[in-house]
Design goal:
The structure is a single chain. By secondary structure, the chain is an alpha+beta fold. Helices cover about 60% and strands about 10% of the residues. The protein is built from six helices and two strands, in the order H-E-E-H-H-H-H-H. It has helices spanning about 5-15, 45-50, 55-75, 80-90, 110-125, 135-145, and strands at about 20-25, 35-40. The chain has a two-stranded antiparallel sheet. A hairpin with a 6-residue loop joins strand 1 (about 20-25) and strand 2. Helix 5 crosses helix 6 (about 135-145).
Amino acid sequence: METRRAERALSSLVKSGILKSTRVCHRDETTGDYRGYAIRNITDKFFEALGFTRSVIKKARQRASKRLKKIAYKAGGRLSDIAKVHLATLAGAAPVTHGLIVRRPPPPPDVEEARRRAQQCGKLVRQYPDKPISEIREILEQLNG
């Protein structure tokens, strides 16, 4: 779909009341330009057109809100802070983290150990291409003691 066609379609959905759109801008520190993106929300009208009742919509939103609050609590911040970080990341900006850590947690030590051993095994296979895997495993055990 062409960009302009998608823009017209979104504009029509906003005019009909199915979507809500809010413009958010931020300044790009490297170039000094302002970049903007729109936050779009699907309104109740859309779900009602699909046949959902207001009580079902309300219950689904409450469950989603509770789930997101739980995620925010585990991350050690407020839901609004986490939303800002994710929105900025999606927009391509350097996120302001508000003291939150925005990275994946390190894998468990056993995964790291397995990865390291697999890399060592690969090096040994390249170093000794004629040796059977059983001998390479013995060499690996000797190295790791």
